[in-house]
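Task: complex structure prediction.
Instruction: return structure tokens for all chains below.
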Amino acid sequence: MTATSTWIMITATALGTAALRAAGPALLDGRQPSNRVRRVLDRLAPALLAALIVVNIAVTDRRLTVDARLAGLAIAALALWLRLPLLLVILGAILTTAVVRII
Amino acid sequence: MDGPAAIAASAVIFSGSAQFALVAVAPQAGAGAAVTAALLLNARYLPMGLDAAPSLTGSAGQRLLQSQLLIDESWAVARRSDGRLDREALLVTGGLFYLAWVAGTAVGVLGTGLVEDPQRFGLDVAYPVTFLALLWPQVGSGDGCGAALAGGAIALALTPWTPPGVPLLAAALGALVGRRPR
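Output:
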């Protein structure tokens, strides 16, 4: 891959990404969405958060995988259920994942 | 991608998933396929931007500028208990991540090979676990539960069959699942 095509690739990705980030606010253009639209928009967060968790925990190279990360997530869920502070939730998950990887 | 290109990419793209996609796809499939993969991954900014739009203020130009600090982390961290976004938190988190991202890339370029695989320490679960903590109260409130289950299921189902990015984008359809207004 030549240096020129690398820079063209970076520029194209940067412009496309900026456009995607700006598209939402540009489409709504300062208006407040109707209640019905608002309700769907409010549910975008849980839907996307759940998907982000799935692809970061259970996916390796496009394959569904069960590994140490799932143990870390399970411990985090337990800690959240016990209402432990966020820092403990994250540290518990990191430690669990690391320990399971060693085993 | 050499050092200067990597640092420039962090400064102008500011999106880890897209940048990793470029590096992973370009050598085998070429620049066009790499850009397509990266933009497919970032297509999630469309629904995220729609979600964030009512929280941004100022003129049209200012709002579009603010939208450029939209990343997974700032979008997630800025969420308030009422489900809307805190504009200050979004901008501060996005700005800090931008500085850390560019500086971190520079450190990475200079120190290539010095650091061992961070996965060994389990650090890679920090983000998804943070996402879980943010999702937790929204699932408890009832209406978010169906959307979360649907979004997660869509991502799981599509992952083996579609290019990376499509599962995340399609998961936005999970937002249509929920109680009808009375």
